[in-house]
Amino acid sequence: MQTDASYRKTFLISMLVVFLTQAYMAIFMLYPSVLRSQGFSLGISGWLMSTFNLCSTLGRPLGARATERIGIRKTLIWTSGLVAVFTVPLAFTENPLLLLVLRGISGAFWGISVVPISSYQGLSIPADRRGSAFAWASIAYVFP
Predict the structure, then answer these.
(1) How far apart are CA 61 and CA 111, in angstroms?
(2) CB neighbours (10 Å) of residue 106?
(3) Longest dimension (CA), the chain
(4) Fewer CB atoms inside 10 Å of the end CB: C or N, the chain?
(5) Under 8 Å CB-to-CB from 71, ≥6 apart: which residues?
(6) By residue range, what is the domain housing residue 108?
């Protein structure tokens, strides 16, 4: 049984990870404006935006496998690092094909990271507090 202090720590870690994960995705709502200022058409911008979401959906089964094989913590650490590795180059290229590939790969790793976040919440939050904890976590999902 978890103590209140242990529960609070778990809850705060969960909220922070969810918030940061969603904030990463939310910042890309500004991406079409950046692409337009670089001269990209609306069609290319649409492909670049949708590629991330498509690949994040396709990456989730890999997230389940990774979480089961290497654990929640290692999966989150690896995917966070790989999301950063494939996101940073977006600032330095204007090649549409390279942008598409980078967005797809970062989307896949972002999608993989969603699985251990949910697993962590489900396993670490006591059943009697799960309802309110998930309600607060859902706020962290939409707040960014």
Answers:
(1) 9
(2) 27
(3) 57
(4) N
(5) none
(6) 4-142
Tell me the C-alpha distance between 24 and 106, whole Å.
Answer: 11
Output the pLDDT for position 121: 78
**DSSP at 38:** T
The span from the CA of 40 to the CA of 59, in Å, is 27
Distance CA 89, CA 85 (A): 7
| Dihedral, CA of residue 70, residue 14, residue 28 and residue 85, to nearest 10 | -30
Mean pLDDT of 33-45: 90
Does the pLDDT value for residue 82 go beyond 80? yes
Q: Is the pLDDT of residue 143 over 70?
A: no
Percent of the chain with pLDDT over 90: 44
Q: With 0-12 CB in 10 A as exposed, 13-18 as middle and 19+ as buried, what is 48?
A: buried
Domain count, the chain: 1
For residue 41, what are its two tokens?
A: 């058409």
Task: Find out whether 129 and 7 touch, Cβ atoms under 8 Å.
Answer: yes
pTM for the whole structure = 0.80
| pLDDT at residue 135, rounded to an integer | 76
Q: What is the CATH number of the domain that holds 18?
A: 1.20.1250.20
